[in-house]
């Protein structure tokens, strides 16, 4: 059910600090450089369409975010597949439907751009995240992520 006290809007470059703060609260360690790099790609690459969103509470404070990538394909047409790279809701605001609302608006926005498929990578040991994506209609893909130890 949508959380009426929360507004979803497109992410802006100025949201970097809030995203780093929320992610740091979730993981216990801030990943400033990682997000600086991601924001640079998102906001400075002309091939990357703005799709990332933030959730603001009634006071305008950012309490959640979803970051995605949609690249421009050949002939200036958007690609039909997009990725959901990372999602986070401030632990103090979790379990209020904000995560669901972020995914719902993210999907609606991508659909309106002609995207047909959305993918994301989740560690299958992360039961909470696996459950969240399952509840939001993500299913395991036929493509398997292979790795080799070096
Ligand atoms: C996964 C995550 C985004 C979910 O965000 P959220 O806002 O808590 O998500 P929702 O509120 O939509 O749903 C979560 C649960 O709350 C429940 N819920 C939603 N609204 C509710 C309400 N008003 N009252 C009680 N429960 C509610 C949902 O039904 C769901 O329950 P379930 O787990 O039993 O199915 C959040 O937990 C998070 O940020 N996790 C960390 C993600 C992470 O590791 N990111 C860093 C690397 S990618």
How would you describe this structure to a colleague?
There is one protein chain. The protein is of the alpha+beta class and 150 residues long. It has one domain (7-121): Aminopeptidase (3-Layer(aba) Sandwich). The chain is built from four helices and five strands; from the N terminus they run E-H-H-E-E-E-H-E-H. Strands 1-2-3-4-5 form a five-stranded mixed sheet. It starts with 6 loop residues before the first strand and ends in a 15-residue tail after the last helix. The model has no long low-confidence stretch (mean pLDDT 92). The structure holds coenzyme A.
**CATH top-level class:** Alpha Beta
CATH superfamily: Gcn5-related N-acetyltransferase (GNAT)
**What separation lies between the terminal Cα atoms?**
46 Å
The value of Rg in angstroms is 15 Å
Enumerate how many helices there are, as a single number.
4
CATH topology: Aminopeptidase
> Strand portion, in percent?
15-25%
User: Rough shape?
Assistant: globular
Largest beta-sheet characterization: 5 strands, mixed
Helix content: 25-40%
Whole-number total of structural domains: 1
Q: Per CATH, which architecture? A: 3-Layer(aba) Sandwich
Instruction: Point out poorly predicted stretches.
Output: none
Mean pLDDT: 92
Task: Give the beta-strand count.
Answer: 5
Judged by helices, strands and strand pairing, the structural class is alpha+beta
In short:
33% of the residues lie in helices and 19% in strands.
Secondary-structure blueprint of this entry?
Elements: E1 7-10, H1 16-27, H2 32-44, E2 53-56, E3 62-69, E4 81-89, H3 98-112, E5 117-119, H4 127-135
Parallel strand pairs: 4-5
Antiparallel strand pairs: 1-2, 2-3, 3-4
Helix pairs in contact: 1-2
The structure holds coenzyme A.
